Structure formats: C-alpha cells, structure tokens
C-alpha cells in the first residue's frame, strides 16, 4: 500500500488516469483507513475532486494497523474542497436505524468518553422514529461458569420460541456472543450446548480451539513438525488412543534414551570430523530425540515398560502417522479429509450436535484451508498461518462476519464490526479483561520492540508524543518515561472504550452485559468501568438479572479450589459399560436369520410377525439409501475442461462441484503456460493471460525442457505459417449452457479454417479430449457465422512434432446430448 501511495504521489499521470474514471468518490468506513491508504487516496482524488467520506470515529478500533481515531478529523487536510485550501464540509448522520432505545442509551454513555477528539466533536446518536424500548439486561455472577450459564438461560427462551422460525414477513432473530478474548469461548460453548442451543464459533482464530478442529490441527502438527510434542500429547490422551499415564511415561523414557544415545553419537560425530573423516560421519544417525521421534521408533523400545494394549496402540498409531505423512506433500485439503476419516470425527460431531449442524466447524475449517492452499502452499506454511491466527487478535485479516439464523454465533468483537444481530451478549466485563489492560503487549515503543517509534509513523501526530525536553538526569528520564507510559495506557484505554461502543451497538433489540467476580486467576476481579456504565443505565431503562455480592478479601477462587474432575483415560461409555458389554455378548451369540426364516420360526405368532415386518422395512430402507443418487446440478457456465470431465467421470465432477478443491500448480502446467505465452510473443500478439498466469511463470526462469519445446515447435511446419488468430477467447452457448474457453491458434486456407491446440505432452489424448476440439470448432464457426463443416480441428503434440486431426468430432447435437444425459 505504501508503494502504491508513492507511485501515485510521484507520478501525477497515474492519478489523472484514475480521476478520469470516477466523477464522484465515496469512501465508506473512513475511520478504518490507514495512513498509507489516506496518502494513496489523497494523491489520486485530492485537490478538489468530489470526495465524500462516511465514518464514525467512535468505532475506530484498528490503530494497531495505522487507522487512528483522528483520521476523520483530518479529512479536510487530505481532501480539500478546492485545490490549495484545507477545509471540508462536515455533516452529522445522527439517527441510528439499528438499536432500540435502551441499547442506544448505553452506547451513548460509553461513547461520551471518546466523542471529543482534536478538532472533532461528535454528537450522541438518536433513535429512529418508532424505535422499540429494547431489553438491556445486566448480571454480575460469582464465577465465569455461572456467567456463561446465565447467558445461555437468557438466550434459551428467545432461541426456542416456536415463532422464531415461522415464515413471516419479519426475518427470524439472530444471536451473537461477543468476546474480548478467545479464552472465554470454551465455557460459553459448553453452556450453550448444555442448554441444547446450537452454536458456531466464527473466525479462524477461535475456530482452531473448537475440539474437533483442534484434533485436526494437532494431527497436522504431528505430521509436519517433529517437535510438536504438545499436539502429540493431545492425541495420546484423547479418545482416539486413550493411553494411561504409565504408557505415556514409558514413551517419555524411550524418548530420553534415544536423546541420550543421540548425544553420544554427536560426540562421536565431532571426533570423526576433527579426525578428517567426514564421509563416515554423514552416515551416522544424527537425529535428536523427541516424543514424536520416539513414537516413530517405537519398535526399538523396551516392550516390558508398556502395557500390551498401550504398546499395540502406539505401534498402530506410528504406522498410521507414516501413512499420513506420506501424503503431506499433496493438497492440504486432501490431508485434512484423510485425518477426518482416520479420527472418525464426522461420526462424533453428528452424534454430539446432530446432522443439521454437526459438521459446521469442520466444513468451515476445510473452507479456510482450501482458500489458503489455492497457490500450492506447503503444510508447514499452513501451520504457521494457523499459529498466527490463534495467537494474534489482528494477525490475520478477517472477513466481515455475517449474521446467521442457524446458530448462536460466538466471535471476537473485532470480528463483529460491521455486522448486527437481534440478540447480543457481551460477557467478561471485568477489570483487565474488558477493557483489556494489555499487560503482555503495551503500545509503548520505548519498552516493546514490536512497535516502531511513533514519530516515524505517518499517523504519528495522532499518537502519544515522547520528548526529551528538560531531561538532564536519570531521574528526569525515568519521570519522562513513566509519563509517556501513562499516555500510552490512556491512549489504549480509549481504543478499548471505542471497542466497547462497537460491541454494544451490534445489538438491535436485546443486549445482556455480564461479568463475574472470579475469572481464571487466584484473586477476584472487580467489574470494569464499562460494566459499571451498563449497570447504571440498566437501573434506569433495563433490568438487573443477578448481582452477586463481592467475595471476602481472603476468599479463594472456588473453581480453582474445587476443580472439575474426570476419569482419565476417559471411558466413552462409562456407566453404561456393563450394559454395553452384555449387549455385545448377546449380539455375538446370535445366528444370522433371513426374514422368511423368522416368519416361519414364529409359527403365526403376531409379535414375531411384527418383528419380521419391521426388519424387512429396515432392510428396504437401507437398500434405498445405498441405491439413492444424490443429484448435483451442473453450473450454468462452465469451462471446456468441465465438459471433458463430464464425459470422462461425471461422479468425480459432481464431487468437485459439491466441494471444490484447489488445484495445485505443478511443473507441467506452469511449463505449458510459459510455452503458450512464448507462442504469443513469437507472433507479436498482445497477451491475454491473467495475472495469476504470470505468477506461475516465476519458478520457470531457467527450464531446459521449455527450451526444448520451443526448438521443437520452431522446427515444425506450423512455425512457417502465419496464423489467422492467436489465443482467441470465446463464450458460446450450447443448449442454454455457456461454455467458455480459449483457442490457441486459428489458421485459414482459402474459405476454410483450422483451429489448433498446442499440446506440450507427448502422449496422444483419447476420445474425451477430442470434445475440446469439437467445442473449439463450434465456437469458431459461431464467431465467424459460418458452417461448422468449414472448420477443421487438430492437436499438435509439440515434443514429437505430430499433428492429430480426429475424424469423429462431436457435432452440436451430440454435445447437447452429452449435457442432457447428465441433467444440465
């Protein structure tokens, strides 16, 4: 962005071109515009061009990326009404069409602390005409668990209202819980599930902590990182392996023995190198022991230290990991799907949440992986990306959240900006939590190397200023540093207040604000200033649902004093084991019997006859299920390659349409793209390739095989002929379906044409590939408004200099029949 701004500033012609495209410019959410973006936009559209910016400085929550709250106030400096002036007209849009009265009352109280910024004073908002009273509820509880349960209790009657999903002119209510920290999510999820309320974690950072997704990430980490001991422990102690402490201790001892042996080998290695014998040193086993390495070498372990069941599980798991690791070089999405099958996650989540929403989080994670993997990214790159997403609130760009009616959505307040819900809960309004004290990452460049000096930032004039003026002694320096720290803390607190304003204004009609005395520490925590404001407003225009008294000064955290207990390893059937074992024995002792034999055995017994009918019905239903065909509609627009796939393998195409997977760019496709681009340049034709095609060429700067393709083509008869057209894009309609493609070359001979497709592979293609030529021939005939009989078609295999002209190309009627055969 900074580079783009420099170009716009240094080259006025660029700005003139862009200004010529747009008579009027509207900048939305201007308070989120960074300094580099302001420079770029000002260079393009400043100096009197008609520009209008819309924004709310009270919603400025992205100062960490250069979007300061004073951006709107300085609008006139960058976009003056006329060239050479510095002013701009300001209009206030003060009516909110979202919030009911009680919710807006609270929002205005919160924003009153930050509405005055520099030369800009923002007026409080007013409700729309006919706005409802709104429901503002406030609660102060003993523990976080009680707080989460109360939120679920507040949501439950609204969620389970029989009228919620009834078809009316009014859309069903939407629900969200907005958290300041992701650590709050598990307790809220658990409370909602206990109340039988469907929930969804929104945002990748929170998604990776959902149990089923966390299991997938753990497996990916084990496969891609030999030091991912914590991830391995998750799997060893989880339900898939359910190892006991003794077996885990034995694996740890095996790991230490390997490390000890490796240390001895390392000393031997140094001696060999010093002695001038590096060749023998290279053959030595040089790995350093780790828990994952120990698992991989489980065959070398002392079996007597393991239980027989534990050793077998570890041996099987090690073999499974080797199999999965062999697929780590392929598509990330394929590996995730394989891990999902291996862990039987689909069964688990469907049993837990039902068929309607059980797969929600797995599917969302797969979508994120698919987006990331489009450019052929490696597993390690994906794991690093996930790590940033899980640790950094602003580490990854989050797409705008969309309200869903299918579940109560749980997301961070930053992720919620720009969205709205009917019912919103804002928990955790405790000192240090919200507003956050940011003890781990203060925005102070004097003490935190992650931040550059504010004077070097483009928005530095809107940030706290540190000055050495008057500093002559160490005591003076210490005083100046402390004063600057106080400025930074105040500045950060103001952003937290704006974040609170954003949270409250997401709600339309229902808002519940809560906190608890006991968080996750040893000392109780007082309610924050935002909670106190919510409590004050609720006493006047809302309601207090609970207000627990503060603990005694010497009280201890009841959650820490009475931690939850559970059996480990966990027994999935626990108190039903005896009954379950008896049922297994009963099933194993039975003899298979046909339905007819069952009827005969009953000898007219009505109850047995009823069993037979029920059994037959189940068999019939199962047979129907096995033979059922799931219909997948073909898209109304498709590439020529899709039509070929339809002919070759319609089932595979259906799966691809239902769940698109990224196609990794390989050496051969990149070489083919490079060759086609070279052909264009050979004929001095302006390129029609997309930007991503050029991206694919970067690794092929020196490619001997590409040079061989060029030489082979130059030696062919086609090199001496002048094409009528090169790289012709087309879109043609076949029986209502738009088919698009690009013809490599067209040659003209008298009144006849020939379309040619360059093939950079040597293997002659089969009948299915000839569909490509049939479509090209039909498309060219349509473009030229001539008979298809006047157009021939050919493949030219460049490496072997062989030209193939299939004699049995499909006619238009046959192409239509192909589409109709599979329900286009």
Automatic annotation (TrEMBL):
Residues 1-100 form the UvrD-like helicase ATP-binding domain. One of its GO terms (biological process) is recombinational repair. It catalyses: ATP + H2O = ADP + phosphate + H(+); Couples ATP hydrolysis with the unwinding of duplex DNA by translocating in the 3'-5' direction. Residues 101-418 form the UvrD-like helicase C-terminal domain. The keyword DNA repair applies. Keywords: ATP-binding, DNA damage, DNA repair, DNA-binding, Exonuclease, Helicase, Hydrolase, Isomerase, Nuclease, Nucleotide-binding. PROSITE patterns: UVRD_HELICASE_ATP_BIND, UVRD_HELICASE_CTER. Pfam families: PDDEXK_1, UvrD-helicase, UvrD_C. Its EC number is 5.6.2.4. GO terms for cellular component: cytosol; DNA helicase complex. One of its GO terms (molecular function) is 3'-5' DNA helicase activity. It is an enzyme of class 5 (isomerase). PANTHER family: DNA 3'-5' HELICASE, UVRD / RECB / PCRA DNA HELICASE FAMILY MEMBER. This is DNA 3'-5' helicase.
